[in-house]
Design goal:
The complex is a heterodimer of chains A (100) and B (400). Chain A has 100 residues and is mainly beta. Chain A is built from 1 helix and 9 strands; from the N terminus they run βββββββββα. Chain B has helices at 32-39, 59-69, 89-98, 108-111, 114-132, 162-175, 192-198, 202-221, 230-233, 239-247, 290-299, 329-334, 353-368, 374-377, and strands at residues 6-10, 16-17, 21-26, 47-51, 74-81, 103-107, 137-140, 146-151, 179-182, 255-259, 269-273, 304-309, 322-326, 341-342. The relative contact order of chain B is 0.16. Classes of the chains: A mainly beta (100), B alpha/beta (400). The A-B interface holds A 5, 8, 10, 18-20, 43-47, 61-62, 64-67, 79-81, 84-88, 90, 92, 95-96, 99 and B 155-157, 159-160, 189-190, 192-193, 196-197, 206, 209, 212-213, 216, 232, 234-235, 237-241, 244-245, 310, 328, 330, 347, 349.
């Protein structure tokens, strides 16, 4: 885990970070040397986009996919149920083929 | 046995309990009030109320009641029956008797109704409370402890602090020889492949995948998932995001077995508890609330449970203490009287996951040694038991 007191970036390639306090539109927060201008009010423990994400992009947190975007998301925007959907589906045969 | 200061209560069947309780059990909702009235004068004396509300017989519920009334934390059992319900009270009574515990059965319709049953029940419980005070004490190590883990009222902080800190504690406990379980297959969606790869054998990995297939089918048919409301307000957006956060409380050790409710872990290590009923989807939701899950872990022998909460659950449980690990520092400040561990402080730079993990293990040892948890001290004794059906555990599920 790295990050200042405003954001928590759980894995290096994650395209979202977690707000460690309420973030206010217009403020600039830094994460791993990257400056992000906050676009929406983002409550504590909610997610902020660290880069521009096109519609259909995979969102990663903890280094793993947590869903995909349902609309284009600008860097600094709130990422939540209004623009992120679950992609939950499992193909167990793929797993066992990959494992064997 | 590992070195600890835990002085446990020795049971006639060889079990070691960390509490010394009289359990009063109603065998149908119609006996609930009478059973509760029996317990009223004994508040704070270790007299707990449990029961099954249904009138129609159910194999799962009867097995659960057998496991719960013979749990090592239980020293004596009063069964309260209305009389005409279909629960097999004689079978349950014989099972408790065979465990060496004192047991009494009161049938309201034979005992003359509410008043006389309550009087007879209180007289019997009073004797048992006095007798249990003399129960023999024996040393107990962490390698004899069974620990459940659960999360409830999750938010965006749960998977950052309390769950991974419980995972750190789970690793320490497993390494010390304890048996640790995690559960809620409806909150592990997306973690299937990782769990199967952690399984001690390929056969167990396949059994875990089968159980997750079942879970997906059941939740899909019910058009329900364990996600919504407070999770979304708290910052979680998808079930897989919630699941990954919940999964971190299992720590990093191999999964040595998979249990079903009422099945005890047979050797040290980490276990997954499959709590999704088998066969056609019936009886409603697999777990109607957090306490249904805690009750099932207790039926698997859990001496105590570690409960991670972000939004702030206040529950405890009948029979086994619940240690509440609070993920969210704001929730902790609001509900400090109900929380045992402040894991949210990690987000404020006042501690690390390793420090909180060790704090949890220290508290487990103290609670096993008799220190009451916050919910115990406040008198919480939540208990839920519903209808379910399970097929027997598969051949590859328990360690050889």
């Amino acid at each position: 885990m790295t990050g200042d007191r405003a954001l928590l970036h759980l894995a290096p390639d994650d395209n979202v970070a977690v707000a460690l306090r309420t973030l206010v539109p217009g403020e600039t927060v830094e994460i791993d040397g990257l400056a992000v201008t906050v676009r929406d009010a983002i409550p504590f423990a909610h997610k902020i986009a660290l880069a521009e994400l096109p519609q259909g992009a995979t969102v990663t947190k903890y280094g793993v996919a947590i869903g995909s975007t349902t609309a284009p998301i600008a860097a600094g925007a709130h990422v939540h149920v209004h623009n992120l959907k679950s992609d939950y589906i499992v193909n167990r045969e793929d797993f066992f083929e990959a494992a064997s | 046995m590992s070195e600890t200061s835990i002085q446990a209560f020795a049971r006639a069947d060889g079990g070691k309990g960390i509490r010394n309780l009289v359990v009063v059990a109603y065998l149908v909702e119609c006996a609930h009030h009478v059973a509760r009235a029996v317990t009223v004068p004994f508040e704070g004396d270790g007299v707990h109320l449990i029961g099954f509300a249904g009138c129609y017989p159910n194999g799962y519920a009867e097995e659960m009641m057998e496991a719960l009334t013979t749990h090592p934390n239980v020293g004596a059992v009063l069964l309260v029956s209305l009389g005409c319900e279909q629960f097999n009270r004689q079978k349950l009574m014989k099972r408790v008797e065979a465990s060496g515990r004192p047991v009494e059965l009161l049938v309201i319709q034979k005992a003359g109704g509410t008043r006389s049953t309550v009087e007879a029940g209180r007289a019997w419980v009073s004797e048992q409370v006095a007798a249990l005070a003399k129960a023999p004490r024996v040393p107990m190590g962490l390698d004899e402890l069974i620990v459940g883990t659960i999360c409830g009222g999750s938010d965006g902080t749960s998977g950052l602090t309390a769950n991974p800190a419980i995972g750190k504690a789970a690793d320490i406990l497993v390494d010390a020889g304890a048996r640790v379980m995690f559960e809620e297959l409806g909150e592990l969606f997306g973690c299937e492949a990782h769990m199967a790869a952690r399984a001690a054998t390929p056969e167990l990995g396949r059994a875990i995948m089968d159980a997750m297939d079942k879970s997906r089918r059941v939740y899909g048919m019910l058009d329900q998932s364990s996600f919504g409301g407070g999770n979304i307000t708290g910052g979680l957006s998808t079930i897989e995001e919630k699941s990954i956060g919940a999964y971190t409380k299992s720590g990093t050790r191999p999964i040595v077995g998979m249990l079903k409710p009422g099945v005890k872990p047979t050797a040290k290590g980490l276990y997954l508890l499959d709590m999704i009923g088998d066969g056609p989807v019936r009886w409603g939701f697999p777990n109607i609330n957090d306490n249904a899950e805690i009750t099932e872990m207790i039926a698997c022998g859990a001496h105590l449970s570690l409960f991670s909460t972000g939004r702030g659950s206040v529950v405890g449980s009948a029979i086994s203490p619940v240690i509440k690990v609070c993920a969210n520092p704001e929730t902790y400040r609001r509900l400090a009287d109900d929380m045992d561990v402040d894991a949210g402080r990690i987000l404020e730079g006042r501690g690390t996951l390793d420090e909180v993990g060790r704090e949890i293990v220290d508290l487990v040892t103290r609670v096993a040694g008799g220190e009451p948890t916050k919910s115990e001290a406040l008198g919480h004794q939540e208990f839920v038991l519903t209808y379910k059906s399970f097929a027997p555990l598969g051949p590859a599920c328990l360690p050889a």
